[in-house]
Amino acid sequence: MVILKEYKMALVMLALFIGVPLAVNSTDVHNVIIYILIYAMVGEAWNLITGFAGQTSFGHAAYFGIGAYTSTIMLEYFHITPWIGMLAGGLIAVVLAFIVNFNMFKLKGHYFAIGTLCVAEILKTIFSKWEWVGAGDGIALTPISALISDAPSSAWGKIAWLSLDVRDRLPFLFTTLAVFCLVFIVCSVLERSKIGFYWKAIRESHEVAESIGINPRKYKLIAMCISAFIAAIGGTFFAQFFKYIDAITVFPLSVSMIFVLVTVLGGLGNVYGPIIGAVIYYALDLLMRRMTGGSGSGLNLIIFGALIVLVTCTEPRGIMGFVDRIRQSLAGRKKEGE
Amino acid sequence: MIGQIIINGLLNGAVYALVAVGLSLTWGVMDIVNFAHGEFLLWGLYSSFWIWALMGLDPLISLPIVVVLIFALGVLTYLVVIKRVLKVSGLTALLATFGLSMVLKNLTQFFWTANYRNVTKPLVSNQSFNIFGMYIRQDYVVAAAGALLLTLLVTLFLNRTKTGVAIKATSINKSAAQLVGIDTNRIYAITFGLSGACVGAAAALMASFTPIYPEACSLYSTLAFVIVALGGFGNIKGALFAGLIVGVVEALGGYFIGTSFKYLVVFLIYLIVMQIRPRGLFGW
Amino acid sequence: MKKVFAILLALAMVLSLAGCSSTPATTTAAPSEATTTKAAESEAPAGDPIQIGAVLPLTGSSTGEFLKAAMEVAQDIINNSHDLDWDLAKNKGILGGRPVELVFADHQASADIATTEAAKLLDQGVVAITGAYNSGCSASVATQALEYGVPMVCGSSSSASLTDGSTYAFKSIFNRVAANDEQESQEFFEYLKYLNETCNAGIEKVAIAWINNSYGIHANEMFEKYAAQYGFQEVASVSYESSSTSFDTEAAQIKESGADAVFQASYIGDLTLFAQAYSSLQFKPAAIVCYCGGFQDASFAKVATDLGVNNYAGGQACTAQLADKLPIFSYVNELYKAKTGQDIDGPALEEFASVIVAAQAINAAGSTDAKAINETLKSTTFEAPYLITQKIHFDENGQNDIMPAVVTQLIDGKYEVVFPRDEYATADPVLDK
Fold this sequence. Notes:
- The structure holds 3 protein chains of 3 kinds.
- Chain A is an all-alpha fold.
- Chain A contains 16 helices and 2 strands.
- Chain A has a two-stranded antiparallel ribbon.
- The longest helix of chain A is centred in the C-terminal third of the chain and has 27 residues, at 216-242.
- The mean pLDDT of chain A is 88.
- By secondary structure, chain B is an all-alpha fold.
- The longest helix of chain B has 29 residues, at 2-30.
- Chain C is of the alpha/beta class.
- The N and C termini of chain C lie far apart (70 Å).
- At the A-C interface, helix 3, helix 6, strand 2, helix 14 and helix 15 of A face helix 1, helix 2, strand 2, helix 4 and helix 5 of C.
């Protein structure tokens, strides 16, 4: 019962994520929910390093892209299922994160942030010139039935190859949801663990953390590696969902920024932040696109941008800050009632 | 040929520097990452273009008008948006400026479509002087000279005027500045305006040789981030030299390694330099 | 303040939820409609519209609104009766009077948005899909269309890889109107040969500057292939990123190579910067030949006039100078001009053609069944009185194999047809030395 109470919000959200796609049979809604889950997943990853450990990264697209490319190449060239590909991509991302960041943490604050941005931009250039991975052409994923002759043809069967069935998106959606839940649980557990405590200590004060015997670099590296692993898994889902990747869709600054935006919009340093931010961000994005899109005037993006400004100006702590306040005022009222 | 490449790099770098100086002001003084910086530049370009197209004034002549316009845009941005997010984490301000950048960029699309526009027959043409077998573009020289001059002016302003010193004081310690009676709110508004004025000037200098369209400035802002960090935050001199370095590195890297890799070299240089000087070339 | 915010936020949330629930309301209805049309198309009343999807870069770095206008002209010609010597224009609608309805979507020049927007249209039940201008986006739209088995008629994307039959898996449903880089390369080298033979141009060394994306990579590949085949010496191949702020280094490299003719696979912004850089380096090759792209943009004509150069040439499906020779093209151009205020250019005419061909294929197939349309597309030769070639035919990989482009040269700000030297040539090539 205690668990139920504590995770009430998570359970309500889970119910919504299962219920809404079942109730609403629309490509748009299914697509947007998959979008939300993928970006929230990477948002959770970003939240570990930035929200908990306090190191701003503007380059998470690097790990996201590595995940997308690794699993796609393994599938297309070697016919290995993305379930294995995503773990391989995750491991490569961890190795990369370890090497790149081994010496990077001596940079502080914005210097570090720009450094991460540079890493992603460098990878973008390399992948856009590397012919084996399709260079500027990118890779279009072959439909699974054409690629693997004995691949199952049912929507659920295709999940063995993590392949989206365009006529029935639900299996892919629920698979993404399941993996997201796993990520969410891992992040919640980490937050409450000793490591999570160390991270927050480092975030609050580097010096104090050091003085109580925490090795900041070690724990920042751990955060970065876990974060890179999760981001790579998100990348794998992205590739399987869009079925087409190239360097400028997975590595640019604008992609890194999406992870920042959904998390900050939802609430930085809060495990619910990324998912709430992603829901608001993509629901609004879709709404604006459908209301005014196709006109070519950019009006949808103007309204969307203005809404972001409005939300940040009025609720600087993100949506979760707002939720917390409502909770508090409700709790206050209850007490009064008693 | 190498001389030619280096000269072009330096001239380009001077314009980068002016854009970066603007960013450095807000980032260094207020610790605000202004994601809409590139869009300020874009609005500067469009202002230059429309003054030229409608009134026949060359961008170089209308420079003061554009500077004032983008200064106003900067102040307005501060008063309407930034002021409200100052108290919380810097990432929230970043989110706000990101939203603002979407609004500003797509407004240009909304008003003037995605068409490419060019200022034709500018006052200073793109023809070159020929010195020691090198071709030196007149428009680049004017832009670079203007950029250096304006950077110098900004430095002088910060060091020699009362407001300038107040800006510096606020950047070092906000509460101490308030204690000695500096109106930090006003200082911040001026800083944002000044940052806008810098990009406005950069836009006017660039307008005659840059195709103008809604996506025109995206790389400029990314480079400006790297330049500011490379030079050291809040350091105008640092931004200037880092801008020149980035210009030259880009040109030489493109020439020797391959033009597709020219920005890769810039980003790589940043990572290497930071290993040696973690607070930027001119950071303390 | 806080209260105001609370209200606003609540409003935003309600709005977004409404977005989730209102959009499905329309889209859930759409697939069922589509299935009924498919099942009962023979009984469908005349006048029931046939939906054709169009995914275009309406916002972002490319100029999609002109392409959209061209497509709308095509829709007008199909749906309304026009006094032209062309059955499709004379008759109202297709399949016995059913109008065509274009459903537009904006991919913002980004391949991932192209995917979801295409999926949305396909789920709505569009009978065919057109677009997407940027070669990379066309590939992602076609990849989606393949999953649904719905035919795609692509207008202006020019990357050879789209129809090489091996890079992508979608050749069964994919058809492209525009000339690809391979056909263009052949024609360009024929043109250079002609210049050497008749005008003593003395072109031996050739160089190329290409944008590093799907379009540029394959232009470069084909350039290299045919340069060797035609006996020209390739002296430089310079690739660049589209987002670059200047192209002085690139231009200097090309100048240094000593090329007599330069090929460009560039969009309008980069081509403009290249032109300025060449001019400032006082570099004047005998010919600068452009693979479709930015050369066709009317604003480039202004740039070239401003620089006072006449050595730019490139592949085009049409030019306004052809109006006298092709009455139906002239008529289309007038309709387009009324909408946009400018003459129709190559990409716009190709997008126009993509809608026309899609309608012709549906009409010829006699139904909206995807399989029948796909077969028709690959087996029929389509009437195209608005093109110099008069005809469009797709080979097994979906390439229009009746070369639909001519070489035009920008002479004093006008696109003149200079090659091939047949009845459609409007001027003689000029060597600007």
